[in-house]
Amino acid sequence: MLFLYINFSVRERSIRGYIAMVMDLRSLDALKRLVGDFIDRVMQDEA
User: Fold this and answer.
1) pTM of the entire structure?
2) Domain that holds residue 7
């Protein structure tokens, strides 16, 4: 079970809450890679 806390702020609107996901190890590995790739792209854009 994976719990994520979400806090989005878009155009003066705020969305906060928790998401619970039941994932197998393969799916969890894929999610970790996707999040890592996203963070890499965001960090490159700010450099």
Assistant:
1) 0.59
2) 2-46
How many whole angstroms separate alpha carbon 42 and alpha carbon 47? Answer: 9
C-alpha–C-alpha distance, residues 22 and 44, integer Å: 31
Question: What is the end-to-end Cα distance of the chain in Å, rounded?
Answer: 35
Rounded to 5 degrees, what angle do the CA atoms 34, 26, 2 make?
Answer: 75
DSSP 22: -
> How buried is 31 (Cβ within 10 angstroms: 0-12 exposed, 13-18 middle, 19+ buried)?
middle
List pLDDT tens digits, range 1-47. Answer: 888 888 877 777 788 899 898 999 999 899 899 989 998 998 888 76
Domain count, the chain: 1
